[in-house]
Amino acid sequence: MTVWIALGLGVLIGAFLGALGGGGAILTVPALVYLLHQTAQDATTSSVIIVGAAAVTGMIGYARSGHVRWRLGLVFGAAGILTAYAGTALDRQVDQHCLLIGFAAVTLAAATAMLLRSPTRTEVSAEPVPVTAGTAPIPLVGDTAGDPPAAGVSTDPALPGFPRWFARPAVKIILAGLGVGFLTGFFGVGGGFVIVPALVLLFGLPMPVAAATSLLIIAVNSVVSLAARVSTAHFNWSIIVPFTIAAMTASLAGKLIAGRLPDKILTRTFAVLLIAIGVFVAVQNITQLA
């Protein structure tokens, strides 16, 4: 029975991961804890393997259609290597109920950011717009006559009020990579529930491109996090193997789903999924601590 549950969950999670570049990953830890009865620490370790393998498979499907932004994804992933190790070390020191409540809080924060973001940014192309002679660059928010930006303040619509240096692409990639690396190590979820909003909000990628690039970053972070866990982790291969195989297979189908649905539907589906999982996990673990 356990094998069949693992297979079914793998299909569900792989489909979400392939379609959304995340979402399926945040289902993995609760599924392993509540349906397959692993401890939070064992579940985060199993999740790293399952999510990492499914991410690689889904990424291959997206790469064929040219959606993966390789340079952005590799730099983003590399920036989080050290913090992934730090998050993994901390994971072993935290009570499992507190760990899952923290997981729920980050999930709800990511969902809120996705729902509140400006809808016009979902339609921004991932490719730079060329500027030719005789044309002017498109003005950013606040960069218009009569409404000049404050000195030293970013004009990036996603970062209003932040210092100008904070809006530089290299700074955004490094800071976002550091944060996602820590979350991957700590929660064992690949970080897709944070990576996709970051790629959409900070870099203006449309949802399909953000999902594809997210899978590359998840794969990099998962390898690093797994390397940090190998010497101390407990691996239940009777669960991990069927779960992983099913998730890898379904992630390819998820890519096909993403290609048939509008960007807005994918974004809202992702956010609603995050809210549902976050509320469930929070209620379950707050009740346990009370």
Blueprint of the fold:
Elements: H1 2-20, H2 24-34, H3 40-64, H4 70-79, H5 81-91, H6 96-116, H7 169-187, H8 192-203, H9 207-229, H10 237-260, H11 263-289
Helix pairs in contact: 1-2, 1-3, 1-9, 1-10, 2-3, 3-9, 3-10, 4-7, 4-9, 5-7, 5-9, 6-8, 6-11, 7-8, 7-9, 8-9
Characterization of this structure:
It is a single chain. This protein is an all-alpha fold. The chain has one domain (2-125, 151-289). Helices cover 70% and strands 0% of the residues. The chain contains 11 helices and no strands. Helix 1 (2-20) packs parallel to helix 10 (237-260). The longest helix is centred in the C-terminal third of the chain and has 27 residues, at 263-289. The radius of gyration is 19 Å and the shape is globular. The two termini are 33 Å apart.
Number of domains: 1
- Note the run of SSEs as H and E: HHHHHHHHHHH
Instruction: Name the average pLDDT.
Output: 75
Low-confidence stretches: 118-150, 157-162
How would you describe the shape?
globular
The rounded distance between the terminal residues' Cα atoms is: 33 Å
Q: Report the count of strand segments.
A: 0
Largest sheet: none
Structural class by SSE content: mainly alpha
Helix content: 55-70%
Q: Which radius of gyration do the C-alpha atoms yield? A: 19 Å
Number of helices: 11
**Portion in beta strands:** under 5%
